[in-house]
Amino acid sequence: MHPKIVLFTARSVRVFNLKRLNMVLSARPFGLALLLLPVLLSIIFTHGTAFAHDTSQAHDTSQAQDTSWIKTATLKTDGIEEGGIKSPSIGSTSLCGDSYILALVPDHVRALSWQSKSRLSRATDRQKQLPQLWDDLEVLAKAEAASIASVDFGSPHTLDLLLFGPGEGKDRDQLNTPSLVLKWGEDFDTVFTNAHAISLELNAGMPEIRALKSRVAALRARDRFVERPKILYLSRSGGTAGAGTFIDHAIRLAGGENIITTQGWFSPDPEQLLALRPDVILTSYFEDGYESVQAMAIRHKTVSDYIAQFPTFEIPGQLWPCAGPGLIEATERISDALVQLGLNPGEMGTDKREPVTVDLVQPVKPTPSDGSKL
């Protein structure tokens, strides 16, 4: 019996008779090649398959990791990822600040001002349940120490940015939280300066800013009559706004002319008002303003009778607590009201937005019992 050699491979067992092996080896090189060819092919196949299997497994693992990362980054609950990655958060201490962050970065809002639960706030019912802040060092320091917490809006954590209203934040250097103070201004340049500052700090809100700029461009593109309708602005308190105010800026961009030429904000005497003959009266805060004994436009009979003589329309006060993003919607509403009244029926130009239906109050001619003229 001739001895045999056994060759083990990963997938088979090869048995060779040594006598036959000697015969082949003593023959010619070609025979040796024929003998070894199955062995070589077996080794190549075995290791090649194992390498391909290992590579495929590594590729599958890499794909699984990528997919897991994508899911972690997109699973959000109002701006805070469930996968453990926290997106930048912001809180506001003023109604003006609220108007900015609710319009630009609503998913990042974790605290609003003390006025956020009033009728002048644009916060949703759910957002009104957020913690409230105001410009008080003790209040803000306590909020920092305890972290901002809300059952409905994620686990407790500190804010990444604290937004103060114009003129606020005198003690902000004593806080650990990074902060930003809004600039006060009376035009759209101020709106976009503040908006870009917030966007830069949070790395968010740019699509919203671009949309607002498009709306301003559409307003400017509207065709207008040469003769602009004269508009009188009156607030609930009887105050008005003249040249250089954001009310004046909105009136002019909407296609009207502010009948008040005096610079700035002031409250005219009833006698001054009665001498004015506007084409339309623009009111604000009549429906959503704070109740006050000084609400002259509501409580003063002579003034209320005067208002009733002219077409009027109301712009919600929550749109413009300051020159913020809501100023653009207020301007659109003024423009649409002028069109509805037939005072400025120009073409809408490149503005494809559906006009807002504004509640108009037609004039009521009073008939004084003493026969005198108003």
Widest sheet: strand ordering: 7-6-5-8-9
Q: What amount of the residues lies in strands?
A: 5-15%
Total helices: the number is 11
Mean pLDDT: 75
DSSP strand count: 16
> Quick one: biggest sheet?
5 strands, parallel
What is the CATH architecture annotation of the largest domain?
A: 3-Layer(aba) Sandwich
Basic shape:
globular
CATH topology heading of the largest domain: Rossmann fold
Spatial gap, N to C terminus: 137 Å
What is the CATH level 1 assignment of the largest domain?
Answer: Alpha Beta
Q: What sequence of helices (H) and strands (E) makes up the elements?
A: EEHHEEEHEEHEEHHEEHEEHEHHEHE
The name of the CATH superfamily of the largest domain reads Nitrogenase molybdenum iron protein domain
